[in-house]
Write a structure and sequence with these properties.
Elements lengths: L10 E9 L5 E10 L4 E5 L6 H8 L7 E6 L2 E2 L8 H5 L2 E4 L11 H11 L4 H14 L15 H13 L5 E5 L7 H16 L3 E5 L3 H6 L4 E5 L2 E5 L2 H9 L5
Parallel strand pairs: 3-8, 3-9, 6-7, 7-8
Antiparallel strand pairs: 1-2, 1-4, 4-5, 9-10
Bound molecules: adenosine-5'-diphosphate and magnesium ion (MG).
Length: 243
Amino acid sequence: MQDNADNIPIVDFHRVHLKYDQGPTVLKNLEFDLKRGSFHFVTGESGAGKTSLLSLMYLDQRPTSGRIQIFGQDLSQVPRSKIPYLRRRIGVVFQDFRLLDHLTTFENVALPLWLAGMKEAEIRRRVNEMLMWVGLERNMRAYPPVLAGGEKQRIAIARAVINRPDLLLADEPTGNVDDEMANRIMYLFNELNKQGTTLLIATHNQEIIRRNDKPRFHLSKGNLEYIPAPSQMYAAQTQGGTR
Ligand SMILES: Nc1ncnc2c1ncn2[C@@H]1O[C@H](COP(=O)(O)OP(=O)(O)O)[C@@H](O)[C@H]1O
Ligand SMILES: [Mg+2]
């Protein structure tokens, strides 16, 4: 594969439109990329298209027109049979969690490691450590249907990050947990980012945006506006503001 070159963006959108068959045009002419190892938030009101944007990167949704490349591969050229391999490099925290109800908490989180062929002892070690981190060690044997929303959300997060994906897409990942847990989750995401994972996080949480000095993409009326990190804006102002 050619995508190890540092200069190839992890995600690259070129003139991407999305209009649902029975619905509105949600995304208009999007043009942006995500560099390897970058960390961005996605903001915008409810209905602005944040979930739709993430679903395009995960091949849950196809664009109406335009070109999307992930890891240097044009998604329109990826054969159906190869989609699972591509998806294994992407961790996703879905807004509606999408846990497997017939698997326990432990099994849901272990699944990506089983699929990757990791040894059982190593899986147990990693999953136990992760469940401790997100405060689910006592729910290890429970099935998702009996758990609360915040617990399911933490399973979804643990499952998405357990295999240290190349790209992490998280859709309102702290929407169902308290502030302390939200900070723990952000710590986890920052650690993952330090190890090289590219992150894109859709969030409404102003406190999280304020505490994490990251650039963001703001969606409004189908358009995407790039907003630099607060420290970048400050630096630009003190240097005279020209690029
Ligand atoms: N599968 C779908 N079919 C038709 N319309 C959809 C579908 N998914 C989302 N929409 C519509 O697209 C718009 C953007 O939705 P969404 O991407 O979920 O926004 P957000 O995540 O920012 O709240 C909304 O108007 C929503 O009703
Ligand atoms: Mg959404």
